[in-house]
Amino acid sequence: MHLPLAAPAVRLRARGGRLLRRRLLPGGEPDAIGEDAQLSNRVLDQRVVVFFPEPPRNAYQLEQWLRPLEELDRRQGVTLITQDSRTTAMLRAATPLTVHCVARTATLDGLVARGRLALALYVSHHPRNFQLLRYPSLAHVYLGHGESDKAVSASNQVKAYDCTFVAGQAAVDRIADELIWFDLAKLVRIGRPLAHPAERHRPEGQRASVLYAPTWEGGQPSMAYCSVPTHGEALVRSLVGAGLRVVYRPHPRTGANRRDVAVAAAALRRLFDEPAVRATGSVLDPGRSLTEAFADADLLITDISSVAVEWLPTGRPLVVTTPSEPGAVVAPSPLLDAVPRLDRAAAGSAAALVRRCLDEDPERTARTALVDHYLGGYDAGAALRRFLDACEDVLTARDAARHRAPRAVE
């Protein structure tokens, strides 16, 4: 005879199963520990759902959209659906928006069928997006999580969505140049409805500050833009050796896919514990928002990434590294043509380039001309209004299409 396990033992076994499942997950996969039992009869009153099936390491992709989504919530009602219990906890701490963690497709079926959902928004290209994309009752819009010259910014995956909201003409040109058989009418320019960087106010007596904000190594060779293992240490030593203050802002996913990058990233962090480095005021960024990090910097060094584009409204000097990985796809772009590039061989003498940029900044006019091209201008408030109106336009078009008269049977 088998006696039932005591409640504490059952809970212990369940907790152990969750921990084991998380440790065995491949990179980029959610833990799929959902709250399905509590959602079996839930009716969603919101008209907009944001589907985010990402683990917590990728939460930054959605976090940048939370304030615009909160404004959209006031108009239409917004709910977030996740597939990772840890991401769910992070988001609930960060936003008043409703967050549901759904592991089972049957639960998702019920939520879509019972509720008022009409518009689905996506900020990443996770393959699990197709779990929600399959519903024809919803309009599907891709937002992305940054405007950049990375190869993924012209991904063929955008064809899966009814519309893609983009920041400026640069995104339209990039997609038009790269994708075949794509209907450009599906692109809606809204700008970037995020807070633009504040003016730089350097504290009295503080050295000039350089923000080093590299991207991660990417999930495939074509996206290997990360400069941490190739430029990082030599770059930082050159800057602090010249008396500059360096703030190192590692990407949340640095080292996620490659052991050598993780090792280099750990070594770079340790460098900031050295007395000579600390003496310049150089530090690891404490996890501030990008807006706050920008306000503390006189110049940015970054890789090919959205950080370079977001920096443009500051008007301050920008240096972009040249990737060393032979497979990295670097397409021609107005931004890369307009700013100084730093290759691996020159990383050890980066201070000379930085001093020249700080003292002379000959590229300023060229960078200023790119703000509208990449971001649709400086006005984040106007971009927010365009985002809200674009969502409303999609909802109106979706409602009209769903309620049109049925086709006559011939």
Structure notes:
By secondary structure, the chain is an alpha/beta fold. The protein has 2 domains: 27-189, Rossmann fold; 209-374, Rossmann fold. 39% of the residues lie in helices and 12% in strands. It contains 17 helices and 13 strands. The strands form 2 sheets. The protein has a 7-stranded parallel beta sheet. Helix 8 links the parallel strand 8 and strand 9 (245-248). Helix 3 (66-76) packs across helix 17 and helix 8 (228-241) runs parallel beside helix 9. It starts with 6 loop residues before the first helix and ends in an 8-residue tail after the last helix.
Ends: how far apart?
67 Å
Q: Give Rg in angstroms.
A: 23 Å
The structural class is: alpha/beta
Number of helices: 17
Strand content: 5-15%
State the shape: globular
**CATH homologous superfamily name of the largest domain?**
Glycogen Phosphorylase B
Looking at the structure, the CATH topology of the largest domain is: Rossmann fold
What's the order of the H and E elements?
A: HEHHEHEHEHEEHEEHEHHEHEHEHEHHHH
CATH class category label of the largest domain? Alpha Beta
**CATH architecture title of the largest domain:** 3-Layer(aba) Sandwich
* Amount of helix: 25-40%
Low-confidence parts lasting 5 or more residues at pLDDT below 50?
A: 1-5, 7-16
Task: Enumerate the strands of the largest sheet in spatial order, edge to edge or round the barrel.
Answer: 3-2-1-4-5-6-7
* Main sheet record: 7 strands, parallel
Number of domains: 2
The average pLDDT score comes to 91
Please give the number of β-strands. 13
